[in-house]
Amino acid sequence: TTLQTRSAPAWNAERKVFQIWMLTSTSLPGVAGTTYAESPDGLHWVKPILRQKQVGGSLSNNFVTVDPKLEWPANAMENVVYDPGDPDASQRYKALGHCYGREPIVSPDGIAWKRLNVPEIPSSDESNLSHDRESRTFIATVKHNGPHGRSVFLSTSADFRAWTKSELIFHADDRDQALGKTWIERRFADATLQQPLLNVSSAYNV
Fold first, then answer.
1. Rounded to an integer, what distance in angstroms lies between the CA atom of residue 103 and that of residue 64?
2. pLDDT value of position 206
3. Can you say whether the dihedral through the CA atoms of 35, 41, 46, 48 is positive or negative?
4. Is the peptide bond before 73 cis (omega within 30 degrees of 0)?
5. Which member of 43, 75, 92, 180 lies 3.0 to 4.6 Å from 70 by CB, making a disulfide possible if both were Cys?
6. Per the confidence metrics, is the pTM higher than 0.90?
7. What secondary structure letter does DSSP report for 46?
8. Angle at 180 between CA 176 and CA 186, to 5 degrees
9. What 3-state DSSP class applies to 179?
């Protein structure tokens, strides 16, 4: 099993537990998704049996999903934030679902999720979600191609439904391209360093 997380642990003051959501692969070919765990202290974690997604013929697992029929990458839940200030208790957990294009979804507990009938936020396979509680602003950074490949774009929302058009905020420039080639060449020239497995000069010698 391989785990990644695009979410910071959320502290639920009412239940007095930390909660976390993880992108999870399995030993079964093509079977992956998002799993859930919780902890009273941030050190000792429990993976509750949620019975939402059948994996290897069994529901005895901690996978969470907005739709049990979805498979990877459509069943990815990339980012989760806890929003205790939302007056609607059924939507105090908010997340961006799907691995390509981000679908706003909500939950009362971080475990049972539902879709919102709103447009998705365009993105390729990386994103992050933050919530500024003082200004009540949701902040999504998403991935698109920029002047030199993958770049960071920003979209914001005041209600988690209407999102601004994504704008480019960070990308590599011409200087980065020159420095990158220089550092790659230095790495291959230094026999005291562990060498990369591949050296495809056409990929960086441009």
1. 15
2. 56
3. negative
4. yes
5. 75
6. no
7. B
8. 145
9. helix
DSSP state of 91: G
**Alpha-carbon distance 35 to 45, whole Å?**
13
The mean pLDDT value for 181-200 works out to 87
Q: How confident is the model at residue 1 (pLDDT cuts 50, 70, 90)?
A: low
Is residue 127 within 8 A of residue 114, CB to CB? The reply is no
Q: Which residue has tokens 């429990």?
A: 46
- CA 136 vs CA 102, 110, 165, 202: distances in Å: 20, 19, 18, 47
- In this structure, the strands spanning 63-64 and 32-39 are antiparallel
Q: Give dist(CA 22, CA 34) in Å, integer.
A: 5
Amino acid, single-letter form, for residue 65: T
Residue 1 makes CB contacts below 8 A (sequence gap 6+) with 24, 25, 26, 27
**How is residue 132 written in tokens?**
């500024």
Closest CA to 96 of 72, 69, 123: 123
Are 145 and 126 spatial neighbours (Cβ–Cβ below 8 Å)? no
